C-alpha cells in the first residue's frame, strides 16, 4: 500500500483531513483542487486593505465533539469566539435566534422564562406530522414570528417556500425562552487564531502529501491511473450527470471595505429577512478579533448559478442523490466524502467527522 498514491480531489475539509490521516498512516497522497488555493470554502486571506476576510462567506467554528476539536487543535491555536446574530424587522434589530428578549422587545412585553414558554405555547400552530420547514417554525413560534423572521429569509436563501423544504433546514435554528443570544450553544466555540487557511496549510504540511492547485479532476482523471481516489466534489459531476443535475444553491458575495469605520455593526452577522436582495451582512473583525483602523464586510446574495454551496433539502433531490449513491457503491476504488459528494448540509465539524470516519474505513480495508 505504501508505494501507491491516493488521489484526493478537493483541498477543503473532507479532502485535507483525509489527506493528513492517510499520510500519517504512511500513504502517499496527491491533493488537487480546481481553485488556486487550499481550504475550500473556508479559505480566508488578507484583503487589499489588510483585513482578514472569509472569501466565501462567514465560517464560524462550533462543535460538541471534543474529539474533533482536539483533532483540529493539532493544526491551529484558537481564539474563543461566540457568534451573535441580529435580525432586522421593520428597521429594528432583534436578537436572533428568537429568545425572550426578542419577544419582549418586539411586542412590548415583560416576560420571564415561564412567561416566554407560555407565549410560544399560545401562539404556536401545532403541526402533525412535522414534515417541512414551515411546519417546524409554525409548530414552534406561530405565524407572526414565522412571517417576520423566517418566511422571506427562506425564500431568499433557497429560492423556495419553507413549505417546499424538508424540516431539517429550520430545525437548525433553535427557539429560546431564556435570554441567551448566542447563535450556537455548542461546548467548543472558537476561531482558528491565525485563520482557516493557515490551519489547512499545517494540515497539508507532510512529506507524504503533494498539492496541485488550479487543476480540474477531469484532466487528471484522463491522464493518470490512481490506485484509489478520494472524491469530495459534487457526486453528480463525478458520474457526468448521468441522471441529471442535483440541485445546489449558490451565493454571490459582495465584499466592501470601509476605511473610516472601526465597526460597521454591533455583532458579527445581521440578517435582513424582509429587506434587500441580500440575506445578511457579516463583519469579519468581530469573528477574527483583528485590530485595524478600517473594517471589511460581506453581503450574501443567494442564487442558483455558481459554485455549489448548499445541497437543496427536498425529498425529490434526496431520491435523485440515492440513485447516484447506488452508482458510487459500485466504484470500489473511490471514496466519496464531504458536503457535495454526500449531498449533505454538513457543518464544518460534521465534515471533519465524516472524513475521519472515511479515513479509518479506508485504512482498515487496506491493512
Automatic annotation (TrEMBL):
Cofactors, names only: FAD
Molecular function via GO: UDP-galactopyranose mutase activity
Domain UDP-galactopyranose mutase C-terminal: 148-345
Keywords assigned: FAD, Flavoprotein, Isomerase
InterPro entries: UDP-GALP_mutase, UDP-GalPyranose_mutase_C
One Pfam family linked to the record: NAD_binding_8
Protein EC: 5.4.99.9
Bilayer-spanning residue ranges: none
Keyword Isomerase: yes
Coiled coil feature spans: none
Family stated for the protein in its record: Belongs to the UDP-galactopyranose/dTDP-fucopyranose mutase family.
Protein name (record): UDP-galactopyranose mutase
Organism the protein comes from: Rhodanobacter ginsenosidimutans
Organism placement in taxonomy: Bacteria, Pseudomonadati, Pseudomonadota, Gammaproteobacteria, Lysobacterales
Amino acid at each position: 500500500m505504501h508505494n501507491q498514491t491516493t488521489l484526493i480531489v478537493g483541498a477543503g475539509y473532507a479532502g485535507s483531513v483525509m489527506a493528513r490521516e492517510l499520510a500519517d498512516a504512511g500513504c502517499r497522497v496527491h491533493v488537487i483542487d480546481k481553485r488556486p488555493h487550499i481550504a475550500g470554502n473556508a479559505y480566508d486571506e488578507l484583503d487589499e486593505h489588510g483585513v482578514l476576510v472569509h472569501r466565501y462567506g462567514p465560517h464560524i467554528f462550533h462543535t460538541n465533539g471534543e474529539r474533533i476539536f482536539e483533532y483540529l487543535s493539532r493544526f491551529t491555536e484558537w481564539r474563543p469566539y461566540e457568534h451573535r446574530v441580529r435580525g432586522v424587522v421593520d428597521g429594528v434589530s432583534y436578537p436572533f435566534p428568537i429568545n425572550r428578549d426578542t419577544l419582549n422587545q418586539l411586542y412590548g412585553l415583560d416576560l420571564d422564562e415561564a412567561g416566554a414558554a407560555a407565549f410560544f405555547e399560545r401562539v404556536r400552530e401545532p403541526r402533525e406530522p412535522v414534515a417541512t420547514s414551515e411546519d417546524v417554525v409554525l409548530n414552534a413560534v406561530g405565524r407572526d414570528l414565522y412571517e417576520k423572521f423566517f418566511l422571506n429569509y427562506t425564500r431568499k436563501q433557497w429560492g423556495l417556500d419553507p413549505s417546499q423544504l424538508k424540516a431539517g433546514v429550520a430545525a437548525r435554528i433553535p427557539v429560546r425562552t431564556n435570554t441567551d443570544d448566542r447563535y450556537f450553544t455548542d461546548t467548543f466555540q472558537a476561531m482558528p487564531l491565525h485563520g482557516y487557511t493557515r490551519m489547512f496549510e499545517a494540515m497539508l504540511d507532510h512529506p507524504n502529501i503533494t498539492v496541485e492547485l488550479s487543476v480540474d479532476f477531469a484532466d487528471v482523471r484522463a491522464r493518470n491511473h490512481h490506485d484509489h481516489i478520494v472524491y469530495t466534489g459534487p457526486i453528480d459531476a463525478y458520474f457526468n450527470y448521468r441522471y441529471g443535475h442535483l440541485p445546489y444553491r449558490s451565493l454571490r458575495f459582495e465584499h466592501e471595505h470601509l476605511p473610516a469605520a472601526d465597526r460597521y455593526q454591533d455583532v458579527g452577522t445581521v440578517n435582513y429577512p424582509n429587506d434587500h436582495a441580500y440575506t445578511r451582512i457579516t463583519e469579519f473583525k468581530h469573528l477574527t478579533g483583528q485590530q485595524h483602523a478600517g473594517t471589511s464586510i460581506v453581503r450574501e446574495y443567494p442564487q442558483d448559478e455558481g459554485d455549489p454551496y448548499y445541497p437543496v433539502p427536498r425529498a425529490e433531490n434526496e431520491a435523485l442523490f440515492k440513485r447516484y449513491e447506488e452508482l458510487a457503491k459500485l466504484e470500489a476504488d473511490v471514496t466519496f466524502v464531504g458536503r457535495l459528494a454526500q449531498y449533505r448540509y454538513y457543518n464544518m465539524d460534521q465534515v471533519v467527522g465524516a472524513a475521519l470516519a472515511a479515513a479509518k474505513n479506508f485504512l482498515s480495508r487496506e491493512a
